[in-house]
UniProtKB/TrEMBL annotation:
It holds the Pfam family STD1. This is Uncharacterized protein. It comes from the Eukaryota. Residues 1-20 are annotated as: Disordered.
Length: 363
């Protein structure tokens, strides 16, 4: 998303820490009205993250253990989902991920939703992240006042970096407690190439009810991955003493132990994607609602042309936006592109405010 875009940096509040509130945004130069397929992408996390020595060693040990499990699985289960090339971080070889269809699951387990969800979140967040947490160990910033957030947060938590040992090398199906909502487990390993990570995450179930265009989802996660790769490089430089000259043009070292995202970075990518889509979904819903209200008032005005300007002002006071009054009071019976863009910005501003992102510039 680097072409035709510029980046605005808001004031960083002292309460904002790695992996919490959104800190960066890109803005398309093209005018966007009904939808914002080219509009802002929000990425949470600083440009770099310096870890303590103890935390860095802890993460490296976890990475080694994860890779050992992967190698062990490859050597003992030739037909498993993970028998593909371990070097897929450096290639674009096809990697099979689970869609829980009858064709991909054979004799799989059946789990309740609670059984399918993680039970421990210790390695889901940076070991140096010092924020208030819920009783289950998740930071309080993981709860957002956005439409369908809880549902899609659950979907995001059903994405795992590897098959759990108690699943016996089979990806379980989930027995949903809700009659009209299905859940699935998806495997997105942290050693995938960035291209495959993007493809798999964009095709996940997160906010599938929004029916976002695939191209919009791909561009959103691409931006997030690009930022994540740069932050990962900075972590390796700052906390592991890696010489910057050792990285290739793709910001890789060609050493899978170091090039894999750490578990908390992997989760941060998923949560950033969840947050981006959640904000977009909320903005689109509120935008359509405001446009619908405005069109209704305009239609009423067309029917009764004798309404004076004072009564029009009164009828629009509940909308609390000068844009609406400008359209009606100045006797403009259409909604121009400029007005639509202004309404979109107003919607963004209100959503950001609700998320305690007041410092963000609206685009």
């Amino acid at each position: 998303q680097q072409q035709q875009q510029h980046i605005r940096q808001p004031s960083y509040g002292t309460s904002l820490t790695y992996g919490s509130s959104p800190l960066r945004q890109t803005v398309a130069d093209s005018t966007v009205l009904e939808m914002s397929d080219e509009c802002s992408s929000i990425d949470s996390g600083k440009s770099g993250c310096s870890l303590t020595h103890a935390s860095a060693q802890q993460l490296l040990q976890q990475q080694q253990e994860s890779l050992k499990r992967l190698i062990s699985r490859n050597s003992t289960i030739q037909s498993s989902l993970f028998s593909n090339d371990i070097n897929s971080l450096y290639t674009n070889d096809t990697f099979i991920t689970n869609n829980t269809s009858s064709n991909t699951i054979i004799n799989s387990n059946l789990l309740s939703l609670n059984q399918a969800l993680p039970t421990n979140y210790d390695d889901y967040y940076s070991p140096d992240l010092d924020v208030e947490k819920f009783s289950n160990g998740r930071p309080i910033f993981t709860k957002r006042p956005l439409k369908n957030w809880e549902l899609n947060d659950l979907r995001s938590l059903l994405i795992y970096p590897e098959i759990k040992s108690d699943w016996k090398n089979k990806i379980p199906e989930i027995q949903s407690p809700y009659p009209n909502i299905n859940f699935k487990i998806q495997i997105i390993p942290n050693y995938l190439s960035d291209e495959k990570f993007i493809e798999n995450l964009a095709n996940s179930d997160i906010y599938k009810e929004a029916n976002f265009d695939l191209n919009f989802k791909l561009k959103t996660v691409t931006y997030i991955i690009e930022r994540a790769r740069l932050r990962h490089k900075q972590i390796l430089i700052d906390s592991f003493g890696i010489d910057p000259s050792n990285f290739n043009i793709n910001n890789l070292l060609n050493n899978i132990q170091y090039d894999c995202y750490f578990k908390f970075e992997w989760r941060n990518i998923i949560e950033n994607y969840l947050l981006n889509l959640g904000i977009e979904y909320q903005c689109r819903i509120e935008f359509k609602s405001k446009i619908s209200k405005l069109k209704k008032i305009i239609n009423e005005k067309k029917i009764n042309s004798n309404i004076d300007k004072k009564s029009i002002k009164n009828s629009t006071s509940s909308l609390k936006n000068d844009l609406y009054k400008k359209v009606l009071v100045e006797n403009k019976l259409g909604i121009t592109d400029d007005v639509k863009l202004g309404i979109w910005r107003d919607v963004q501003s209100q959503v950001y405010k609700k998320l305690n992102m007041d410092g963000w510039e609206v685009n």
